[in-house]
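Changelog note: in this version the structure field was regenerated for every chain. One regenerated record is shown below for reference.
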Amino acid sequence: MKGDRVEIVVDTGNGVQGYEIAATKAGRRVDISTSRGVVEVNEVTRTGQVVRTGRFMTTRVVALVEHPAEEPEPKRGTRVPKDQGRLV
């Protein structure tokens, strides 16, 4: 979902460095997988095509934080036409 993002903090030896991968367009999502000592973060389209990838060694990853997209609040107090009654 647009707005999903993942922050990764990696130990570089002289300190830490942060990276961010986000779903930049509607219909995209961010997938995270871990295998064989590698953390892989992908931005993926609806059809499953990978747009952007970040690969990090598991031993170097200090933190991995997922930030889900915030859904907008529904509008309250919207006007209803005079010939239509309220549903609630």
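Spot check on this record: The CA atoms of residues 38 and 57 lie 5 Å apart. The chain has one domain: 5-67.
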